[in-house]
Write a structure and sequence with these properties.
The chain is mostly helical. 70% of the residues lie in helices and 0% in strands. It has 11 helices and no strands. Helix 4 runs antiparallel to helix 5 (154-171) and helix 8 packs across helix 9 (216-240). The longest helix is centred in the middle third of the chain and has 37 residues, at 104-140. It is flat and about 65 Å long.
Length: 266
C-alpha cells in the first residue's frame, strides 16, 4: 500500500483494502455456511434443538406441513452456523482494517473485550437452551391441555428456538459494547448511572422485540439478565473509561509568586 509523507494511506487505497477485507470475510462466510450445511444434514443438529420439547412430542418428531420446510430449514440453520463459525475471521478482517486508527490503550482494552464477547455469547446461548427454553415451553404448552391436542410444526418450533437462542446470545454482548464505548470516551459511568431508569425501559422494549412471537414469558426471562448486565456494564465502564487528557497529562502551571529569597537577592 502506498503512503504519503505522513505515513497515511491514500483514500483510494483505503477503499481497495476495504474491498479485499469484505471479499475475504464473505468468502469465509460462504465456506463456513457450506460446512454448516454438511454438519446440519449429517450430524442431526435438529435432534439437539428439539430435545427440550420431547416431553410434548409423543413420537419424538415434529410435524411438517410443507415439503420444502425441512430443506429450507437446513439452509437457514447452515447460514447461521456459517456466520457463527466464520465470525472470528470476519472480526479479524474488521479489526485489521480499523486497528491502525486506534490508540495503543484502546487496543489493549478492545482485544480482550472481543474475546470476552465470544464467551458471553456462548454463555447466553447456553442459558437460553438449558434454562429459558424449558421454562418457556412448559409454560406455553401448559394451557388448554384438556381441550387441545398439540401438533407442533417444524418451521414454527425451530424458528422459535433459534430466535430465542440468538436473542439471549446477543443481549449478553451488552457489557462488551459498553466497554468499547467507554474505552473510546463515548459513554461514562456517571452517564450510565444517570440513565438507569431509561435503560430499564429500553431493556423492556428490547426484550419484547427480541422475544420470539408473543411469548411474554421470554420477555420477562430476558429482562432480568439485561438489567443485571447493565449494572455489570457500569462497573466495567468505570474500569476502562477513557479519562480526559487533562487528567492523564496534567499541565504544570507556572508559579504565581516568586520563589523565596528572590526578592531578598534583588
Amino acid at each position: 500500500m502506498r503512503h504519503n509523507t505522513r505515513g497515511e494511506m491514500p483514500f483510494l487505497d483505503h477503499l481497495e483494502e476495504l474491498r479485499w477485507r469484505i471479499f475475504k470475510a464473505g468468502g469465509a462466510l460462504i465456506l463456513a455456511a457450506i460446512l454448516g450445511f454438511v454438519v446440519v444434514h449429517y450430524l442431526n443438529v435438529t435432534q439437539i434443538l428439539i430435545r427440550p420439547a420431547l416431553l410434548f412430542l409423543p413420537d419424538g418428531r415434529l410435524s411438517v406441513f410443507d415439503p420444502l420446510t425441512p430443506f429450507f430449514f437446513e439452509i437457514r440453520l447452515a447460514i447461521i452456523l456459517g456466520l457463527i463459525g466464520s465470525f472470528p475471521i470476519i472480526l479479524f478482517e474488521i479489526w485489521s482494517f480499523l486497528s491502525p486508527a486506534l490508540e495503543r490503550r484502546e487496543k489493549r482494552i478492545i482485544i480482550p473485550a472481543l474475546y470476552m464477547g465470544m464467551g458471553l455469547f456462548a454463555f447466553g446461548v447456553g442459558l437460553a437452551y438449558f434454562v429459558a427454553l424449558p421454562i418457556t415451553l412448559k409454560f406455553l404448552y401448559g394451557f388448554q391441555t384438556d381441550t387441545a391436542s398439540w401438533l407442533i410444526g417444524m418451521n414454527e418450533y425451530l424458528s422459535f428456538v433459534i430466535r430465542l437462542l440468538l436473542s439471549f446470545g446477543i443481549i449478553f454482548e451488552l457489557p462488551v459494547v459498553i466497554m468499547i464505548l467507554a474505552s473510546l470516551g463515548l459513554v461514562t459511568p456517571k452517564f450510565l448511572r444517570a440513565k438507569r431508569r431509561h435503560a430499564i425501559v429500553i431493556t423492556t422494549v428490547v426484550a419484547a422485540f427480541l422475544s420470539p412471537g408473543d411469548a411474554m414469558t421470554v420477555t420477562f426471562l430476558m429482562m432480568f439478565p439485561l438489567i443485571i448486565l447493565y449494572e455489570v456494564s457500569i462497573v466495567l465502564a468505570a474500569f476502562v473509561r477513557k479519562r480526559p487528557r487533562e487528567e492523564e497529562d496534567p499541565v504544570i502551571q507556572p508559579p504565581t509568586e516568586p520563589p523565596e529569597g528572590v526578592e531578598e537577592a534583588e
